[in-house]
Structures are given as C-alpha cells and as structure tokens.
Amino acid sequence: MTIYQTILGEEFTKLHPKLQERYTLPVNQPFYAKGVMHKIESGAKWLRPFYTVATKTKFLFPESGENIPFSICNTCRTLPSGELEVLWERAFHFPKRTRYFHARMTVDLVHKIVKDYLGEPALFYSDLHFAVTREGRLVIRSGFQRLVLSKIECGLPKFLQGHVVVEEGFDDTRNVFTIHVSIHNPLIGRLMMYAGEFTQQSR
Q1: Residue burial 21-32, b: 16+ Cβ < 10 Å; e: rest
Q2: What ranges do the domains of the chain cover?
Q3: Contact 101, 93 (CB under 8 A)
Q4: Under DSSP, is residue 199 helix (H, G, I), strand (E, B) or coil?
Q5: CA angle, corner 75, sides to 165 and 35, nearest 5?
Q6: pLDDT tens column, 109-131
C-alpha cells in the first residue's frame, strides 16, 4: 500500500480509476509520463534572486511560457528505516533550457498528512493535505511550512508561506491526465502556476 492509499483510506477508491492506477505506485516501478504545460507563469521580476537560488536546488524557476514540453517521473522506494518515500521528478523543457521541480514525500499517520520536502537538496518543507472531489479528481493543499537549511528547519510565518493548490484529474474524452498547480503568497502574489496535460509512457 503506497503513502497515497494510506493517507486517503477509503477515499482512494473514489478517485478516477486512472488516478488510482497512477497513485498506486508499486515499489521501484516508476510512473513516467510526458505531456505539455499549456501555460506556465512565474512571479514578479524582482523575485529573480529567489528564483536563482531555487533553480540551483531544482525547485521553482523564473521562466514563463505556453505549450512547454513536460515530463514527470514518480518512484516509490523503501528507505533504510523501512518507511516508504515517493520521489517526484518534474522537468519543464523550455526552448533554451530545461528546468526541474523535484520533491520527496513520506506520510505522517499521527498527524494524517503527507510530508513534502521540495528541492534537491530540499529548500522548503510543507505539510500536504489530500482530498478527493465528487468527480474523482485529486486535490492537494499545503499546510504548515518550514525553510530547510541543511539539517536545520525553521518554521515560516503564514505571510511568508506559499499556499499551494494542486488539482489532478483524467479526461476520458482525450485519454490524458490533467494538472493545475498554483503557488501563491498572500503578500507577494503568484510564485508559480502551471496547467496542462500528460500521458503515461514507457521509458
């Protein structure tokens, strides 16, 4: 049973069948897909110093664009502790360079959250809350966040946090997964938004 089945419990069966397949993720059997982000929007230009640091850790990036080729690989693996971890590797293939958005997720059953470490090495940490819509889409919302400085983690006040909303679905008509991700700060505004579609591939 993967971390997503564990955290959602009976709600997992209410996901669209294709999303159930996607998030079952047997250990060491990666889910790989390619597609296109119809729209990508980063934040204000004055945030460039932040994006410069973020790109070095495969986190956020300054580029915006339309119809950007995209690939994603999710791999569930067993840590030395016996805990399951899911590695997220996302690549956005802009005309002049490829940008990455990586993360590592584990589950906290006590607090009923998914623990998300963003970047490689991790730059930020966020609690994640998972839910299923009536239509069978998956919705992920961020919770408490921390800045990660090597082995030190500092809690962020709410006005410095990036509020994340992810909605993933499946379009039966076109046989594609759909994705919409928004990262927004209450003071700064948009930090990142991307929306598009992808299909599972063999590597």
Answers
A1: ebbebeeeebbe
A2: 3-200
A3: no
A4: strand
A5: 60
A6: 999 999 999 999 999 999 999 99
